[in-house]
Write a structure and sequence with these properties.
103 residues; 74% helix; CM_dom_sf
Amino acid sequence: MRKPAECRSMADIRAEIDRIDESLVRLLAERATYIDRAAEIKSEADLPARIEDRVEQVVANVRAHAGARGLSPELVEMLWRGLIDWSIAREENRLGPDSLRKV
């Protein structure tokens, strides 16, 4: 792992970006295992995939993390809302559509 200032060429930069991307994919795959478990628990409790209060809590959390790290909270929110939508769709694939569950 090199710090950005230690990179001397575009090949160095690209290698580090590829390394980070692999780590992000690994973390997304790990996150998906928790989404799958959430679907199991929600099924047992007859809960919908989308719980709006939780969606907004997650968004508020990542916006705060982004701001603390010098990233645009708006950009991170946009990315996470896509991730949340994907996660909810994954849960609905296991649970069935929310329209058939208690809300």
